[in-house]
């Protein structure tokens, strides 16, 4: 008997993934972590992402698909935290003869990223990027590094030289003297030094910040007009092949061609509208600033007039105050009897002074019968 319980069918969520991200690779991971941005991660962990033909075939395939995908505006290429790419796989090279290498154009396909891919590529370098790994990182249009990354061209130690553009790109980036020193000695250099010498555009403290910084820049680039970005990449790369005069002529021709682009018309109209709004905001800001300035001036005037009025009334108040102060001074100057003096008998000097005060308080011309009698008695006594 068939079961009555039927498994419910959930609605499918359709997401606009790139065609390259839907493909399964053995040595790569491809994703779209941000709008318009593709992330390619080299994934050969046991060999520290050492470069060999199967990996390069997959890389070129993914790059070509992303290059023709209208939803992708920029690409980020990275490895693991331990190694961007530790170099070329020695096992693949050690048994090759001159006829094999020359006849099969060995590692020529490595340069597809610089010739066939028209969209900007940013390399996010962490860990080791040596030999072919360093050359692959330099093929990108922009290089970001973490401070702890280790880069270099150590081929001289294996009895050979860089073969994928290392001697050319490194020299253009850091100058002949420094490139000659690095290539002839095989010495490695840090990510911080790569940024200081101009080989890398930015240096980050951690690998996570490096990858995130590359993705953020790629997202910003992807938000621009794709036709303008493509043209900008082309003219900058031409500067490496042409003299200054020829380069400027080429740039001007490409600049003129963009006047036939719809993106140019749309972006210029939008920019004109933004400028108009900015002018309005600037005018309003100036009016607001003038209003604030007038209010501050008015408040300052009111404070000044109040301060002047207070100073004018202050002297009158000062004339009325001495009376209580004088009373206070008198109270302070009056002798204060101590508790021991209150019960003691007055001295002779004190009694004499009191008698004088009593006589002075009597009227100078006394009247009345008692006063006359006392006066006659006093005169008789004196006689």
TrEMBL record:
Organism, scientific name: Cryomyces minteri
Bias (Polar residues): 302-314, 330-341, 357-367
Keyword set includes DNA-binding: no
GO CC terms, sorted: mitochondrion
Listed InterPro entries: ClpP/crotonase-like_dom_sf (IPR029045), Enoyl-CoA_hyd/isom_CS (IPR018376), Enoyl-CoA_hydra/iso (IPR001753), Enoyl-CoA_hydra_C (IPR014748)
Positions of region (Disordered): 302-383
Regions of compositional bias (Basic and acidic residues) in chain numbering: 347-356, 372-383
Pfam families: ECH_1
Alphabetical keyword list: Lyase, Virulence
Annotated family: Belongs to the enoyl-CoA hydratase/isomerase family.
UniProt record, GO biological process: fatty acid beta-oxidation
Record lineage: Eukaryota, Fungi, Dikarya, Ascomycota, Pezizomycotina
UniProt cross-references to PANTHER family, sorted A to Z: ENOYL-COA HYDRATASE, MITOCHONDRIAL, ENOYL-COA HYDRATASE-RELATED
Name of the protein in question: Uncharacterized protein
GO molecular function, one term: lyase activity
Entry superkingdom: Eukaryota
């Amino acid at each position: 008997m068939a079961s009555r319980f039927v498994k419910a069918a959930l609605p499918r969520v359709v997401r606009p993934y790139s065609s390259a991200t839907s493909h399964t690779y053995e040595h790569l991971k491809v994703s779209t972590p941000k709008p318009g941005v593709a992330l390619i991660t080299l994934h050969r962990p046991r060999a520290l992402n050492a470069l060999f033909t199967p990996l390069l075939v997959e890389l070129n395939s993914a790059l070509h698909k992303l290059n023709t995908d209208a939803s992708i505006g920029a690409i980020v290429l990275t490895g693991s935290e331990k190694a961007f790419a530790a170099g070329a796989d020695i096992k693949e090279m050690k048994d090759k003869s001159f006829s094999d290498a020359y006849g099969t154009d060995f590692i020529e396909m490595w340069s597809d990223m610089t010739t066939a891919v028209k969209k900007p590529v940013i390399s996010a370098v962490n860990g080791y990027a040596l030999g072919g790994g360093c050359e692959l990182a330099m093929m990108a249009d922009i290089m970001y590094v973490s401070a702890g990354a280790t880069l270099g061209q150590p081929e001289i130690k294996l009895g050979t030289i860089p073969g994928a553009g290392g001697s050319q790109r490194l020299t253009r980036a850091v100058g002949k003297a420094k490139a000659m020193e690095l290539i002839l000695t095989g010495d490695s250099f840090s990510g911080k030094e790569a940024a200081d010498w101009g080989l890398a555009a930015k240096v980050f403290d951690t690998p996570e910040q490096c990858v995130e910084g590359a993705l953020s820049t790629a997202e910003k680039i992807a938000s621009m007009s794709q036709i303008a970005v493509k043209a900008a990449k082309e003219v900058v790369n031409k500067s490496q092949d042409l003299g200054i005069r020829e380069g400027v002529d080429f740039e001007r021709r490409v600049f003129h061609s963009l006047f036939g682009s719809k993106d140019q018309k749309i972006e210029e109209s939008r920019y004109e509208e933004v400028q108009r709004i900015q002018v309005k905001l600037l005018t309003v800001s100036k009016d607001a600033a003038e209003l604030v300035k007038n209010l501050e001036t008015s408040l300052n005037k009111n404070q000044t007039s109040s301060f002047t009025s207070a100073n004018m009334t202050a002297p009158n108040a000062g004339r009325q105050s001495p009376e209580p102060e004088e009373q206070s001074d008198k109270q302070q100057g009056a002798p204060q009897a101590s508790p021991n003096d209150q019960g003691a008998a007055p001295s002779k000097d004190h009694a004499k002074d009191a008698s004088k005060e009593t006589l002075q308080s009597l009227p100078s011309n006394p009247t009345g019968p008692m006063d006359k009698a006392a006066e006659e008695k006093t005169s008789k006594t004196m006689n």
